[in-house]
Write a sequence for this structure.
């Protein structure tokens, strides 16, 4: 039987595009990832650059694959989107993140927030508002502790319905951030219609902030725009002290990146909080 299995495998490998086959295997594994307890949220601390205090965390999904090891979300989130698995995964992510922030806030008597990434399918083809409402109720988390990160390109897909969904989320009291700001095709004129709290400057602009004049210009324009529109700015991917100083000096409120901390598994992040908050 083992040989037959191997032959079947070879047959498929020969007859199908290798990449497609790879994807099918991965997709099949992904179907079981949630029930087999292979998904895990890591948390990356977000720093208030002006006061140097931790203000919250971004939840980042990890898949511990039994044979492949840690699979990048860049690989499996698109797959989860295509297959619709993102809906059940997304609800699990929201619930886990809310429970976790409650635990940390209870331990330290803080009001830290947690930012959760929302993908296009979750946002457009499914009642996200209802799900968020349900999860907040079940976990007893104050709505303002939850921030949803929504990419610019996702919003541009259907602007009118995006605005409606955002309005409903805003009414619940959750905070909304535009992720990967500047990388999409958004028209700035829409920005004022979006009920958002903050913009996230993409890592690609932070990387060469000190050497590339156009990246610096984009970062600075984002900061100027946000300031005029009363929005907060979060810079992501800060790896060097010089990048942090640059952003801090230009009034960027929040930042995250390896310089401050890598995304951490719960146990390590709990340790990070204890060192930071109980001194
Ligand atoms: P993103 O939302 O733009 O997340 C930022 C990415 O940059 C994360 O990669 C993070 O680990 C990484 N990062 C943060 N600071 C630094 C730094 O200083 N240096 C470097 N080199 N990288 C840094 P990650 O965790 O691999 O996630 C990649 C993307 O996958 C995310 O991009 C997001 O679009 C998506 N993703 C991750 N978790 C989730 C999730 O729970 N739901 C959804 N829908 N998407 C997710
Ligand atoms: Ca994000
Ligand atoms: Ca990004
Ligand atoms: Ca560049």
């Amino acid at each position: 039987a083992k040989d037959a299995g191997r032959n079947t495998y070879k047959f498929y490998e020969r007859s199908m595009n290798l990449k497609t086959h790879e994807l099918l295997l991965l997709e099949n594994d992904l179907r079981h990832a949630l029930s087999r307890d292979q998904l895990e949220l890591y948390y990356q601390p977000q720093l208030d650059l002006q006061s140097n205090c931790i203000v919250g965390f971004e939840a980042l999904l990890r898949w511990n694959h039994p044979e492949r090891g840690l699979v990048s979300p860049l690989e499996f989130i698109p797959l989860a989107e295509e297959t619709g698995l993102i809906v059940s995964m997304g609800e699990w992510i929201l619930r886990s993140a809310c429970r976790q922030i409650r635990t940390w806030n209870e331990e330290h008597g803080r009001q830290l927030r947690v930012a959760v990434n929302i993908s296009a399918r979750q946002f457009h083809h499914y009642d996200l508002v209802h799900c968020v409402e349900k999860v907040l109720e079940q976990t007893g988390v104050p709505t303002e502790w939850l921030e949803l990160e929504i990419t610019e390109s996702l919003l541009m897909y259907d602007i009118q319905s995006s605005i409606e969904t955002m309005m409903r989320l805003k009414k619940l009291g959750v905070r909304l951030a535009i992720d990967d700001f500047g990388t999409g095709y958004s028209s700035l004129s829409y920005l004022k219609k979006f009920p958002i709290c903050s913009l996230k400057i993409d890592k690609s602009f932070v990387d060469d902030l000190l050497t590339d004049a156009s990246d610096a210009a984009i970062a600075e324009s984002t900061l100027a725009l946000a300031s005029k529109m009363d929005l907060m700015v979060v810079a992501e991917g800060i790896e060097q002290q010089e990048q942090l100083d640059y952003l801090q000096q230009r009034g960027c409120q929040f930042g995250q990146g390896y310089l401050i901390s890598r995304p951490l598994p719960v146990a390590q992040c709990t340790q990070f909080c204890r060192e930071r908050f109980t001194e």
